[in-house]
Structures are given as C-alpha cells and as structure tokens.
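Exercise 3.2. Students should predict the tertiary structure of the chain below and write it as structure tokens, then compare their answer with the key that follows.

Predict this chain's 3D structure.
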Amino acid sequence: MNFTYVRLLLATAFLILCLAGLLNYVVDPSRIYQKGEIDPQAYADALIKSPHGLWAPPDTFDERLIKKALAEYSGQFDAVIIGSSHCMSVSSVRKPRTLAGICDSLLNLGISGASIEDHLTMAFLSVKNRQPKKLFFSIDPWTFAYGKDTRWSAYRKDYYKARATIFEANNRNTPEYEMADSAKLVNLLNLEYTVRSARILFLGTRPSSQSIKLAPRFDYSIGGEFPVYLNDGSYVYSSKYIADCELTPIPVGGLTYKTDSPCNTKDGIDAYRSLLLWIKHKGVEPILLMTPYHENVWKAPLSLDSVAMRSTEIIVLNLARELNLRVVGSFDPTVAGFQPSDFYDCMHAKPESLAKLKIRTIATQ
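Answer key:
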C-alpha cells in the first residue's frame, strides 16, 4: 500500500473540510455565526404593520429568528401554522385565502427545512404567552425523526426550554437524542450550506443593503425582484424563482430530500404525540396538515420520497384517530385534488392551489 498517497489524500480531504468550514463561518448565508444587520424583532414589528409586506432578500438574515420574533403576535390571530417551506405560502391575506373555511386569520411561522426540533420550538413559542385558537402542524415525510436538519441551533436555548416544558407536562422523559452546541459545528460542513456560501462569495449574490424595506403592491403570481414576507408571515417567491420553475421539468421520482435515512422513528413519533397532547392541554386545537407532492414523484413508488410519504401519512392518520384530531390535505395529489399545473416543482404547491386544502373525513377503523 502506498502510505504516502493515503496521507496526501487524507491531508487534502482535511484541508477541503477546513476551507469549507471557514467559508461557511465567514460568508454565513443564514447569519448563524455572524450577527446580521437586521434586528429580528424590528423586522417582525415592521412586517405586522406593513400594508404589502417586506422585502426578504435571500441570505440577509436567519429566517428562524424572524419567525421566533413573529411568534410574539400569535395571540392576535385565530390560527398559527408551523412547518417547512411546503407551507410557507399558506396565507390568509392573499387571494384566494388558504384554509378559509377552517380559520378566520392565520399567522404563518413556516421555515425552510423545518425539523421536529423546529416544530417543538415554534409550537412552544406560539402558545407560551397569548394563544391562538388553532395550531396547524404541517407534516413532512421527515417530521417524525430527529437530526434531519441543524438549523434549529439558531434558537437552541428555546428548543431545550420547549422540550423540557412539553415533555415534563406529559410525564415522560425527553428523547435520548442530543445535538446541542454541536449543531452549529456540524452545519459548518453541511454541503447545502457550503454551496450557498460559495454562490454568495463568487457570484456576489448577497444584496448590498440589508435594511428593512417595504415591498410595493405587486402581482403575487408573478413575484418581485426579491422574495417577500406578507404581513401574516406568508412567503411570496421572487419573479426569478417563479419563472425558473415554469421552465424546469419535474423528473419522475422527484428529487430526494431528507428521506435518505429513517424518517419515522419511535422517539420521533412518541415526542410528537406528546407535543400534540401538550397543545391540547393548553386549550389550543392542533390540526395536522399535509401538502401534496407532484404526481411525478408518485410515479416512482419505490423512490425514497414515495416510500417515506406513504408510511408518514399512515402515522398522521393514526395519530389523528388516537387523539381525535382533524386532518387537512394529503401527500397524495389525487387525494388532495391537485393537478400537475398546481405545482412549482416536485414538492412545492402554488399558493393559489393551496386554497384547495380541505378537512378530510377519516375512517375510524
């Protein structure tokens, strides 16, 4: 064996990892390591008062800290929704309204790639002070497993407080899973984060100004120069994103996202059951929601996403029966009543199409 070659290979790999970590720490797209120029509470306060929302240029602030600040307003709304980017376009202010027959007003606390850690934290932040009447939990195929994302470390103190409060209230021990301060370190080597950092560094895509700016009135279906948060916390994609989606074909099987490892673990399911029980104990109605994936994903029944969706939906329906909860939507576009034209990509439905989501009738057996 050529030990010199092996040592050189290991040294090169170590150097690449160090450079990736340094790049992510310095560029820091989501402002996890460097404090952003925009104060999250100031942004949230301005957003609630804005007539047409605020610009949300990518890579200018940590969206989790913005939504944490926005959670302070939960009691001013009939309902709150938490979840991943799949639900970030759910809105009660744009037309047609989403979930119009189920709630009168809605605060959207959805965040990109939300994990079970995010669900626990956002649910806790939503009801700890002034409480909404309803809390929609937008479930993803990976929701019932820990460790699917590290970005929750932005508010890790809130996460551990939420976990202690929720699980103590339900007389059960916290899960074995631990990933406290190491989450930020792990994220330094995250491939997705490295790609974002490199794009900013080499293409100069970070906006030069990071002040809070009002968005003008514009056509939401076309989008604007940047993404926009509307004053209910819902998200409007940029015109470039919308146009690019129109030109990008959706492959059979879709694109695997967070389903390449176990998605439904006993710890995750037990923890989520405790979360739902805690929410009910607080006098808030938990409602489980699923947004569909494009039919092309379902055309590959053995794909990781398809397998995960089928098993997760069964768990969602079983939890609903067990805890007497209402369920909205489905991962299956046929069940949810969605057509191929209702999607931006393989897993994100268009905002106007999300208005189709309805309460499901669930068989008791």
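Discussion points: Confidence is low (pLDDT under 50) at residues 174-180. Residues 143 and 286 are 16 Å apart (CA to CA).
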